[in-house]
């Protein structure tokens, strides 16, 4: 079932309306407070950007009215990363007993599925009376589930744009859409959110006629670019940028998220010496046309650079591929030729243009966007929702080429359709894929928020935040080397599964001698022990796993050829295999228990006979 998309017009006027079941009525002061706290929830949600891989951004504010009639904030929280404590649970813990009868403000409807019910449960158990939600969850398998769960518990629920529609709420709704724009684009358009960034002089040049471009913008502007990179899953450049500028494309954010660097080159006419071929800290992928310079492909592979071939290389196929890899946001820092191709392909959604107070001239000096085939000014592409900001001496102009998708009005969800027609099932395929934690079977991921109790290196029982923490740490268990021990402790205390994975993989890549010598022979057993503990600890996960009986489970990572299925199914899919093995074990235990119960019942019946 596809969503009906209605691009949001931020300048449109709202008709003030309050749902009859809402506790807010239409009081201007109450609506003003609602709008203020929803915006605050969106601000909190934005705090995680740049700290870890882009993911759904959640913020929560719990507030109440004091005896004197003043509104008081009781607790706040935001989701740091996938696999960490939900924003709602953080806010509840901060507010404590004062939650009872209070209102919770959420920028987006929380996840609520068989494998992830912590956010909804936290608010319900805390005694929250009312929930105000900025937008429904954009992903179809989650959309509306939390809203129905709240209302099923007798809680009052107001959703902006549905139950609350008025001018006061316009800015709040806009904030909620912008903070999760990457997820909205992914859900609505099935592509990553793509941002084109460039710096140019006042006369529209990105380099001198000689090609020299260091530096057009100020140091302050370049620092802002590091922030843009930290908010992205990938940074894309073309071959010309590699040849002329030899960039690093790192975020330089003090240990935060490091996006993958991607080079698009049809001919692979690239230098053998380049900063991007150093993958000790940040991975690099080269996208090229099938059959291009096999010898250079082997050279890149020897450097640890991933090479992906396409039948025809263009921005559209690359973004489709990145969508399949789970990317939410992509930053394009390319030259004018590739920028024009990306715009023409319709993959660019937003533009960040730094304009420096400099004039360089030059008839042949390159411009930020190459030929688009337009001959009249009336054909010019116009940015919408334009924002101007002075950054040091430069002016940053930002705007959208395509509006942020607004998934209102609400279309019946898969669950609602299934209730109407039980013959409709969303998961009829014999193969079940899982990868990101927001996927329908995302709880199968090692990055899901399911702590496990397992022994540490000393044999003492230790609470690991995720399976990924446990797995990565065990690369270094039992080693006496102080560097390995330090890495082990850093992994144990990593704030998110992604950070744990980055620490373990980086050390393994940079200093393979620090990894335990038997790692290749024991890693599958270590993973299986962790998975068994996870699925045995949480009954809802056991139920989810058993619900997949008859289906092949495939970890859909297109680049992990050991644990994942690979891009074209060439991967070994050991994670999927272990889960199927565990499923068989659970089924056997269930059958054994059933037989034991039946035997016991028969004995009781025999004893009752005269």
UniProtKB/TrEMBL annotation:
Coiled coil: none annotated. Pathway: Cofactor biosynthesis; riboflavin biosynthesis; 5-amino-6-(D-ribitylamino)uracil from GTP: step 3/4. Its EC number is 1.1.1.193. Residues 600-610 have a biased composition (Basic and acidic residues). Residues 33-146 form the CMP/dCMP-type deaminase domain. Keywords: Multifunctional enzyme, NADP, Oxidoreductase. The keyword Aminoacyl-tRNA synthetase does not apply. It is an enzyme of class 1 (oxidoreductase). Residues 591-610 are annotated as: Disordered. This is 5-amino-6-(5-phosphoribosylamino)uracil reductase.
